[in-house]
Every structure is written in C-alpha cells, then in structure tokens.
Amino acid sequence: MTEAKIKELVAQMTLEEKAALTSGEGPWMTKAVERLGIASMWMSDGPHGLRKQENYQEVKDINDSLPAVSLPAECAMAASFDRDLLYRIGTELGREAQFRNVHLILGPGVNMKRSPLCGRNFEYLSEDPCLAGVLGGAYIKGIQSQGVGACVKHYLANSQETRRFTSSSEVDERTLREIYMKAFESIVKDAKPMAVMSSYNRINGTYATANKYFMKDVLRDEWGYEGCVISDWGATHDRTAAVAAGTALTMPGVNETDHEVSNAVKAGILEEKDLDTACEQILKMVFDGLEAHREGVTPDYDAERTVMREAVEQSAVLLKNKDRILPLQEGSKVAFIGGFAKEPRYQGGGSSHVTPIRLSNAFEACEQLATITYAEGYPEAAKPRLLVGIDLAGDEAQKEAERRSLEPDEKLIAEAVEVAKASDVAVIFAGLPELMESEGEDRKGLDLPPSHNALIEAVAAAQPNTVVVLSNGSPVTMPWIRNVKAVLEMYLGGETVGEATANLLFGRANPCGRLPETFPMKIEDTPCFLFFPGEGDSVPYQEGIYIGYRYYATKKMPVLFPFGYGLSYTTFVYTDLRTDTKELEEKGTVRVSVHVKNIGKVPGREVVQLYVAPKGGEIKRPVRELRAFDKVYLEPGQEETVSFTLSPSDFAYWDTGIHGFRVAEGEYSVLIGRNAFEMVLGEDISCQKEINLL
Ligand code: BGC
Asked: For position 282, what pLDDT does the model report?
C-alpha cells in the first residue's frame, strides 16, 4: 500500500482507534480495524526456527508451539563466519513463516556479548560488531527475500539478563557508537529490517521504549530507518512516552492502557502527529506483511534439514586436534560417553525455543560408521532439560537443589572409564544443561557441571585417545584441555546436530567454524568482570570500547581460545597481501587482496579475517579490530585471491568532540589474521589527511 493511502487511512481513524492500534491484539497480533478494512498481522519468535503459538490468546507455556525445524542457534550460526550461509538459513525460516501465515519474525538478536555470563548469549551473534552486523544483515535479507519481515532485537545495550526489566546500561557515547550501536546501524542501513525491537532495559537512565534519542533521533533521523519500532514483550512502562519517543507498537496487547494514549492527546501531552506517525508505521508494516503473504507455500522439511545439517557442519569449531586424532577411522571401536550423546543439548531455553520436527543424536547417527559402545557418564540432572512454564527464571530454590545434583557420580564415572579403556578412542559428550544457561537469568560462572569435568578428567587419565564434543551456548572453561587430544565445539546445533556431529567426527565433513567470541581462561579475566551485572539497577559499562578480544589483545592477556580461532582437517597458507591506496585520497577506500591456498589433502573452507590496527596516534584504541572477513572453499592444492574494499569507517573512531566518526591522519596496518591474536601478513598504509564522517 502506498504511503499516501496509509496516510488517508490514518486520517479516517478516530483518536480511540489510533490509540488502540499502538498496542497489539493478544500476544502475537496487531489489532484489526474492520470498519476500514485493516486486518491483523501475525508475528512469532524467533531466530532459531519458527515458534508459532497458534492456540493461545494468552501464553501459558513458552515451549508449546507448532512443530518447526530447529535451526542452529545464533551462537552456532555466527561461528560459521559465512554470510551466504546465514542468508540461506534465513530463506528457510522465511518459507516456514509463509507456510504458517506469519508475517514478521522476531529476530535475530544482535546484541554484543559483553560478558560470557549473559544467559542469552546463545541467542546473540558475537562480541564483535562487524561480525554481528554482517551476519545479522545477511540473515535478515534471507528472511525478507521470502516476503516475510524480520525484527532485529534488542535495541539497545541489552547485554545481561539480571534485572533485565529495570536495569540501566550506563554507557558512554563513544562506546555506544563504536560497539553497542554499530551492528544495529549497519543492519538498519543495509538490510532494512521490517521492524526493530526496543529492549527491556534503560539506557543511561531512560527506558529504551521511551528513549527518543535512540528510537527517533538516531534510528530515524540519522540512520534513515523507515520501518516500525516494536517494544519487547512488556517493555513499555508508559504508553504515552513510548509513542512520543518513537516506539510505535507496544507488545503484547494491553487494551487496558490504550486510553492513556488518547487521553494524552486530548490533554495536549502527546502531539496527535506523533500518534499518527506511529499508526502510519504500524500500518505500513501490516500491509507490507499481508500483501507479501503467499498462499500454498509448503515446507520441504527434508530439504530444509539438509541445509541445516550443512550449516551445523560449517559452524562447528575444532579447538584442538593433537596427533590429528580426528577424523576418526570408520569401522574403529569408539566409546561414546555422556548423556548428551543420546539426548543432545541442541537449543537454548526461553522465547527462542522451538518444537523440532525430527531431533537427531550423535549416538544413532554414528552407529553405522563404527562400533560404538556407550556409558552414561553423569547423572540425569546434568542432561539437557527444558524449563517449563512462562517463568523463565523458574523457582530459584528448586533450581539450586537441581544444581547440587550436577555433582559427579563416582559409579557412573567408573563405568565410563571401563568402557573407554575397552575402545580405541573415547568421545565424551559434555556441555551446559539448560539449567545453567537460559533466557531470564545470567550464568553463575564459566564452568561446565562438575560431573562433566570430573568425567573428562577420569576418562582422559585412563584413555590417551580422548576427544571432547561440547554443546553449549557460550564459553566454558576447560581445566582438562591439556589431557585430551581433541575438542570439537558444536555450540547449540539445532535438530540436525546428530548427523552433523557424525559427519565431522568421521571426516565426511571438515570443520571450518571460527569462534565468534573469546573463550577466556577464567571469569576474573573478562573485561567487565568488576562491573557485571552492576549494583542496584545501575550497570556501568566501564570497560568502554574494550570488549572481548579488543581488551585481551590490547592487554596481551592469555586466553583459552581467541576470537576467530578454529582448526581444520587441512592446512591453508596465505601469501601475497596487497593494498592499493590509489582511491584513498579521493574516496577514502583501500583495496586489499590476499592469496589463500589449501596445501593439505582434503577439501576445506577457510575464514579469511582482516584486521585494521592504528599505528600510534594520541587516541586510545584497541590494538586491532576486525573490519572484513570472507569464507572460501578450496580443494586440495587449489588457491584463490580474496579481495576486500575497506571504506573510511573501517579506519575511524568516534570523536566525541565532533559527535561523529573520524579518521585520524597517520599510519595504519592492514593485517590478515588466523584469529584475533595471530596475524600472518600485514601491510602499512598512510592516511595523509583526516576525514570526518559526519
Ligand atoms: C523476549 C523477546 C521475544 C519476546 C516474544 C521477550 O521476552 O525478550 O526476544 O521476541 O519475548 O516472545
């Protein structure tokens, strides 16, 4: 529908109808205005598959949704470092939404992983805004290519679950611009999501939903956003302030406060033109969604599961592979140890939870490939389990009791050791049960359950060929890392995780994921350790721009595994880095190319990572920052030239004096790294004059 037609419709609405339109119909719909032929549109979570709760006007159980393919969680998708793959995953999700008559998908989440303890990190992409922006944008484009809208969330500075409904993220201007706003900025400008979700928290004292500076001045006026801003579910505290600030739609529906908006207009507190603008934005979204709906789209679950299996294979991160113990020999005698082998932890808890179509597990998927024996290894409580009900944080006393049951069970460990000793190799399936990682609360620490750690230590002491397969949504410590031969990080791989794990373990697929976040040695090392999760409702982001690897690399601190890290069953070499600065003066762009060659024996994918490092200058900056990346597939012996074009913003920092990005005059290194800590090639370039990007 044209803009003019929408304006005409809004002009025909009564004040009460307009006020009512700014809150939804129940949990998942917008309100219809039948008199004017305005129908409702439907929205559903979320980033990890479609969570359509069709039968409820009221949400009773967050886990009760129509079956849908459970996708790899965002933590896993991000580890692929592959924008084409995220686009493909997005198209599959868009198709399922068309099939289920859903017009808007509530996701992806692109918040920065400020602390590895954030309970919702599995639902976010990275600690790096470049990676999150590029991948989040590709995912949104994939969804929207199917005529379904995406709602990027949770804008803004929403990086913890503790006191998530009331806390205020206290963040300085430069940190907001360079880190916390950056992914949203690139996504809004480039992928143009149908909606943006304003977050639960406050930013520098003002609730996001009522924060005119971020919702209007920046989002619309500066970044040119033309879509609809929707509150997170229950995040609006003041209906009038939300409309005035630019949060057009409050979700879920709260009919009982609709009159506040119309009364505010009558009392002259809210300008009617602000209400009209909100209605125009909502109607544009509604009509765009309804008009793009296609009848008769049916899912092909088998084909979709194949895409997802490949996606998981391309997201798994090989963290260690001593003596090239992986891939395992087909036909060998392998002990599978730990309940996750049969009952995988494959998705995160909370609003992104999906009812899968067909969940696979590694035990069954490997049975045809080798002689597999099995031992439980740890108690029932340490297996993946669902939190039920809508109280995401659950009953704290009950959970505390359950946590105690995560302690080691010596009998199960002894049985596992015997099974391990009788095999050629032991593969231990470990990770975080849902009890230790979920929406609604932050993690208590970085460790795996004690029963998992004790099991790994005991098995590794008895069987020199021990491999650990991890399923977790965020970094964990690995006190046993020196004692095991291999570690394969699967993150939360969705319903095809079993087949994918089998293919990776037995070399039918070659791991090519890279960590989208740093795995620190211990929680005390993390940049925000002293300030997370804040006191009272104040959460000072005192570490500033030094988030993730920006901190560890600048401080030259040892980490367990750096951002960008990951091994392969083959070997890649880099040569011939070239930088072309011909266009630097005129356009501010720099062309970069580098050769990559697969010198190993099997095909594989390599993630080429480009970092920019300022050389000196008086402004304090991270030692290097990821500015571009690409992923290439190479057969043995094959080589390729990978090219990038850097723009001025890739060299810029936020200057609080001019309130804009600025490139300082001086020298910069353009670096190709295997990860954020290991640079393999570099070229220096010189920028002769400063550039202001206002
Ligand atoms: C979550 C959102 C989600 C919404 C609807 C909220 O609690 O924060 O991410 O989209 O619920 O389920």
From this structure: 98
Mutation probe of ligand 1 site: the residue of 351, 387, 391 with most atoms within 8 A of C-beta:
351
Distance, CA of 61 to CA of 353 (rounded, Å): 11
**Annotated catalytic residue: which of 232, 258, 442, 655?**
232
Q: Which atom of ligand 1 is nearest to the CA of 153?
A: 9
Place of tokens 């690897």: 549
384 pLDDT tier (thresholds 50, 70, 90): low
640: its two tokens:
């390729």
**Which residues are paired to 155 by β-bridges?**
198
Secondary structure (3-state) at 263? helix
Per the domain annotation, does 371 fall within a domain?
A: yes
Instruction: Let me know whether 367 and 502 are in one domain.
Output: yes
Q: Which of 511, 528, 551 is the last residue of a domain?
A: 511
- DSSP strand pairing (149-155 vs 486-489): unpaired
pLDDT tens digits along 510-541: 999 999 999 999 999 999 999 999 999 999 99
Which residue type occupies 656? T
* Domain span at 683: 570-693
Whether 232 is a known active-site residue: answer yes
Alpha-carbon distance of 296 to 261, in angstroms, equals 39
Mean pLDDT, range 234-244, rounded to an integer: 98
Residues with CB under 6 A from ligand 1: 45-46, 106, 153, 232-233, 351
Question: pLDDT digits over 427-460, tens only?
Answer: 999 999 988 999 999 999 999 999 999 999 999 9
Sole residue written with tokens 């791991």: 511
Q: Ligand 1, closest atom to CA 123?
A: 9
Two tokens at 211? Answer: 């924060």
Question: Is 300 in a helix, a strand, or coil?
Answer: coil
Are β-strands 202-203 and 228-231 bridged in parallel, bridged antiparallel, or unpaired?
A: unpaired
> Is residue 651 domain-resident?
yes
How do beta strands 666-673 and 604-615 pair?
antiparallel
CA–CA dist 574, 580 (Å, integer): 18
Residues in the chain: 694
* Cβ–Cβ under 8 Å, residues 486 and 322: yes
Rg (CA), the chain: 25
